[in-house]
Amino acid sequence: MHVRMPRQCAFHLQPERAATAGLDQALLEFADLFPGARDAWRNDLLRLLVLARSLAPSAGLRIRLETKASEGCSLFHVDNVPLRLICTYRGAGTQWLPDTAFDRCGLGRGNNDFVHDWSELCQMPTGAVAVLKGLRFPGQDKLALVHRSPPADAAFPRVLVAIDINPL
For the chain, which domains are there? Predict the structure, then answer.
């Protein structure tokens, strides 16, 4: 079986729209990725959409399903969203830093030189679900989680879902 890599599919859900509205169409792009496991993946994605909606019932959602065979964002950064729910289904999970490991003033300068303690680097396990605060989280813009994509493995592309939770 030949699996097409990389690929990405994104869609939006407004609060009143059923979670399945865009999901089934998006999963057609990934039909060859998990043969025999499509229904289980779909059910898990629906569970994550319900979780995202429970965090902000009146918010719109932007859902991104993707495979990554090359570097994603290797620079540590914060997301310009209120909340992002993320889960890596295959491959290494998102890496993040506690506030004690870096100087927040160095963010956005095009390098990772602001990290002063690499021993504190943390990595989300494959299959773990995380909710990341972003810059637009009310009253918490200075506490947005500093994170990055892990180093890429072209032989074993990551499969992930990112759900941005945006207030209308």
Answer: 8-167 (2.60.120)
